[in-house]
């Protein structure tokens, strides 16, 4: 009961925070995420390169990492085989 | 210094390796040394890292892929079945994928990759490498005797540890950078915690495994590496080269064991010219061996009247090598 009057205040703060976040750092964090995604793809290339015909040493321990990248494999392949990234045109 | 002295003066050397070109007697010496140590009351495991292992032949017992098999009191022998190890490992990976994503079946392209990866030439060596870590890390024995692969392979085995290590370092660094970006985003979005990076954890595990194995191979305190040679020119040239390469990888060399020396006493008997010539040839190279390796020659083992198989012959040989 006692937290009821606090609610609008909290959501006001939240709103304010979100507005500030949107104005100040949304772009930065989107950029960081994009860099992170590129690195993820680079990482998969280094560890799983064999999958697209680039021989990478050593396969034994690569297999240990395979389960963790399963969901990314198809986007990774698509991205590597694309001549130009769509996002290049967008941003 | 004799072989016996080396062992008595350095009881801390628990990892014993015999290396050399193929067919010179690495397995035989491994078995005889294991036998002698076991008779001294030490708990010994002799194991083979060679995909074409011959411990089964020398002990006249099928031990391939059966884990450590007891040969006699205090003595166990093991031959690693790389194929089975790889199959079990593949299955483990498949199961992990199925469990992680709640799948019924491994996606086709992933399955193809798992199969293709296992066909890689380095796979077998890596699997053995990995299995050896399991064996040694357990630490159940006083002595571990590695029946090594022939020289070329052994070098490959050593350099693999180095390649692995560099590879791991590179990708670990990349992974850590990725982590920084992730943390930056979650800070900006004011999320409490970022998820723990399982891949980074996995990489650290892999690095630990590789370091465990290569640090044993190059541990000056705990490891004794012996070269097996015979008095012949080609062997000497190759061994000299190999010893230099091994030194580059920091393998602690404990000595040389000369095998197949034809007993000189035969000269006083009525022997054919053929045998006489061979004895003279060996004499020449034995002198060279002393010049090259000097005090590092720990034993001269004569050519025996029959091949060494079975415990009785192993005992005879161990008496020659270590004294009865």
Description:
The complex is a heterodimer of chains A (91) and B (324). With 91 residues, chain A is mainly α. Chain A has helices at 6-24, 26-48, 59-69, 73-81, 86-90. Chain B is of the alpha/beta class and 324 residues long. Chain B has 2 domains: 3-84 and 122-153 and 220-322, Rossmann fold, CATH 3.40.50; 89-118, no CATH class. In chain B, α4 crosses α6 (122-138) and α7 (151-188) packs antiparallel against α8 (198-217). The two termini of chain B are 17 Å apart. Classes of the chains: A mainly alpha (91), B alpha/beta (324). Chain A binds chain B through residues 17, 21, 25, 28-29, 32-33, 35-36, 39-40, 42-43, 46-48, 50-51, 57-71, 73-74, and chain B through 89-90, 93, 96-97, 100-101, 107, 109-110, 113-114, 116-118, 120, 122-123, 126-127, 129-130, 160, 163-164, 167-168, 170-171, 174-175, 177-178, 181-182, 184-185, 188-190, 198-199, 202-203, 205-206.
Summary?
The complex is a heterodimer of chains A (91) and B (324). Chain A is mainly α and 91 residues long.
Q: Which architecture of the largest domain in chain B per CATH?
A: 3-Layer(aba) Sandwich
The end-to-end span of chain A amounts to: 48 Å
Number of helices of chain A: 5
The helix/strand class of chain A is mainly alpha
Order of helices and strands of chain B: HEHEHEEHHHEHHEHEHEH
Main sheet of chain B? 8 strands, mixed
Q: DSSP strand (E) fraction of chain A?
A: under 5%
Q: What is the mean pLDDT of chain B?
A: 88
Largest interface, counted by CB within 8 Å of the partner chain's CB:
A-B, 35 and 46 residues
Q: Nearest-angstrom radius of gyration of chain A? A: 21 Å
Mean pLDDT of chain A: 76
Tell me the CATH superfamily of the largest domain in chain B. P-loop containing nucleotide triphosphate hydrolases
**What is the CA-atom radius of gyration of chain B, in angstroms?**
24 Å
Count of DSSP H/I helices of chain B: 11
User: How do the SSEs of chain A run, as a string of H and E?
Assistant: HHHHH
Assembly state of the chains shown:
heterodimer
């Amino acid at each position: 009961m006692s937290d009821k009057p606090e609610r609008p205040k909290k959501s006001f703060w939240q709103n304010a925070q979100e507005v500030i976040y949107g104005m100040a750092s949304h772009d930065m964090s989107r950029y960081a995420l994009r860099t992170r995604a590129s690195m993820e793809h680079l990482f998969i290339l280094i560890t799983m390169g064999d999958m697209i015909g680039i021989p990478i040493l050593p396969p034994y321990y690569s297999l240990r990492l395979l389960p963790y990248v399963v969901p990314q494999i198809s986007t990774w392949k698509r991205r590597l085989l694309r001549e130009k990234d769509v996002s290049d045109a967008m941003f | 210094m004799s072989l016996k002295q080396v062992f008595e003066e350095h009881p801390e050397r628990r990892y014993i390796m015999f290396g050399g070109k193929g067919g010179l007697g690495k397995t035989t010496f491994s078995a005889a040394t294991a036998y002698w140590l076991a008779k001294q009351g030490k708990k010994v495991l002799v194991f083979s890292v060679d995909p074409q292992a011959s411990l089964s032949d020398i002990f006249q017992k099928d031990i391939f892929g059966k884990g450590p098999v007891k040969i006699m009191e205090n003595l166990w022998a093991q031959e690693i079945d790389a194929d089975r190890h790889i199959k079990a490992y593949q299955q483990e990976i498949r199961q992990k994928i199925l469990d992680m994503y709640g799948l019924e079946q491994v996606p086709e392209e992933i399955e193809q990759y798992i199969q293709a990866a296992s066909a890689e030439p380095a796979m077998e060596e890596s699997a053995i490498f990995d299995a050896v870590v399991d064996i040694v890390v357990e630490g159940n024995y006083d002595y571990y005797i590695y029946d090594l692969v022939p020289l070329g392979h052994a070098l490959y085995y050593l350099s693999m540890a180095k390649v692995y290590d560099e590879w791991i370092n590179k990708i670990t660094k990349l992974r850590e950078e990725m982590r920084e970006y992730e943390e930056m985003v979650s800070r900006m979005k004011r999320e409490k915690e970022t998820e723990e990076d399982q891949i980074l954890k996995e990489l650290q595990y892999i690095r630990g495994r590789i370091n465990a194995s290569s640090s044993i191979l190059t541990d000056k305190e705990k490891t004794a590496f012996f070269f097996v040679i015979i008095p012949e020119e080609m062997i000497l040239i190759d061994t000299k080269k190999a010893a230099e390469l091994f030194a580059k990888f920091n393998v602690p060399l404990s000595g040389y064991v000369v095998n197949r020396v034809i007993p000189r006493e035969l000269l006083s008997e009525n022997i054919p010219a053929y045998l006489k010539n061979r004895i003279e040839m060996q004499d020449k190279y034995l002198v060279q061996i002393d010049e090259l390796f000097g005090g590092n020659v720990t034993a001269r083992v004569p050519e025996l009247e029959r091949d060494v198989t079975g415990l009785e012959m192993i005992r005879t040989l161990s008496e020659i090598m270590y004294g009865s």
